[in-house]
Amino acid sequence: MSRAGATGTRTGVVLMAHGTPADPDDLERFVTEVRRGRAPDPELLSELAHRYQRIGGASPLAQRTRWHADALARALERERPGQFTVELGYKFAPPRIEEAVSALARAGIRRAVGVVLAPHYSQMSVGDYAKRAEGAGRESDPPIEVSTVPQWYLSPGFVPLLAERVRQAVAHLPEEDRARATVVFTAHSLPERITEAGDPYPEQLRESAAVVAAAADVERYAVAWQSAGRSPERWLEPDISEVIADLGRTGGSAVVVCPIGFVSEHLEVLYDLDIDAASAAEQAGLLFTRTEMLDGDPRLADVLAGVVIASAGEEAHKADRAVTQDGSLEPAQNVEGTQ
Hints:
Layout: E1 11-17, H1 27-34, H2 42-54, H3 61-79, E2 84-90, H4 97-106, E3 111-116, H5 126-139, E4 145-148, H6 158-171, H7 175-178, E5 181-188, H8 201-215, E6 221-226, H9 240-249, E7 254-258, H10 267-270, H11 272-283, E8 287-290, H12 298-321
Parallel strand pairs: 1-2, 1-3, 3-4, 5-6, 5-7, 7-8
Helix pairs in contact: 3-12, 4-5, 6-8, 9-11
């Protein structure tokens, strides 16, 4: 990552993502950590190993996430030369989020913006990343003030990227099937109990789908959830397989899946959609296609750079407003959209 310029005046960026097993031998360690220290039983481990084998033996997520970090660093350097330093931190794989914050501290940076490679906010997802990054900032020596962007699904330039991919996917269908095709927007399911606490995640997904569908001139669309965890509690519904089955029963001819909650190809896309959902579509008598992911598109890096620059400016403004002209402190104002 670029570190030109005076580090004392630079703003750090902690780009955060889920992480993936480094190789098949790392799978048990990875799943145990995801399960908060509970080792997977042999049956679950065997099934997950089989899924990775079906997508080529390993997920491309690590490579794709590194691309996002490098592309974001280049976009920021182009837009604001010498002002930002980007570090990548994973939740469940090295380099950890805490390591990314420590790297910024060693570089002499005292203020950082946290960005998660997930467009929508939930306390269980982005909120957890923020807690780790901001906690690591407080514990670093000297401390770093980390402010995490809560969501960016409506940030300038993002909706047109998704709409473009939706239009392209629909265009790949035979012409006679396009009129009866339904676009299904999906995101990772979460336990249904999040709705009891007023978590905005489900509503953000519905809003996001509606905005992208309108931009892509799509009238037939639905929102579905995918990749629910294996636990006794209820998870957000309907599941993608249920939606596909219903479309088959109600006279649909094709389904276009847009995984609006993800930006990279990984197991939940390459297996849960390209294999499982595609199989469900075949059983329902539907043609199946999926939108291309945003990996490798430099315009996504431009979107994220705009998100970082706007957040850094807002935080600087809050800091300026926190001190009155006579030097006394006053409460900083809340920034619209923060959680």
